[in-house]
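Much of the work behind modern protein science is quiet bookkeeping, done one molecule at a time. The fold becomes a row of whole numbers, each drawn from a learned catalogue of backbone shapes. The protein below has been through that process, and both of its lines are reproduced in full.
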Amino acid sequence: MSSVPPPRPRPGAFRALRAAIIALTLGCGTPLLADTLADVQRLIRQGQYPQALAKIDSYLGASPNDAQASFLKGVIYSETDKTDEAIAVFTKLTEDYPEFPESYNNLAVIYARQKQYEKARMALEMAIQTHPSYATAYENLGDLHAKLANQAYAKAAQLDGASKSAKTKLALSRDLITVPAKAAAKPATASQAPANPAAGNKAANQ
């Protein structure tokens, strides 16, 4: 697949990018952080990405180790097609806060869009290993396998045009990956993110 802006539906695409990330803002540790991230959420919903990025950068200038703010910076990069920057942000979060399944999930979304399906699979499996009840990662993993199955059936039908079973499976898999995306993917809950991660694992790693 709380206060979550609707994702951009794309048939056959991974659906949870924005929903998974924005959900991390629900466990804010201070009123200042809560207000800042609420403002950023509003700006993202309105598509005002330069303003949202400026606000996040200003906050991170004073609190560079804040995971929730970094997470939002990652989604802004993702939404504005700054793929390399988004990957760098989410990868750093998986290293510093490996208990966040959302970081792995969003890396998988980016890799899948780049057709790097093996990297996407590995990232989703890490998300599930980190948080076995994280439904979004399971759904995205299912979407990934459906996409790979569709490609395999298409190749089989191309190589053996007389194969009725390959054509039937191709049609079924095509139907599966072109089901219209949900209006809003199920977000992570606040309990799935540390309430104050900047003062938790990051400090322990220093």
Summary: Confidence is low (pLDDT under 50) at residues 1-19, 21-29, 180-206. DSSP finds ten helices and no strands in the chain. Residues 135-159 form the longest helix (25 residues).
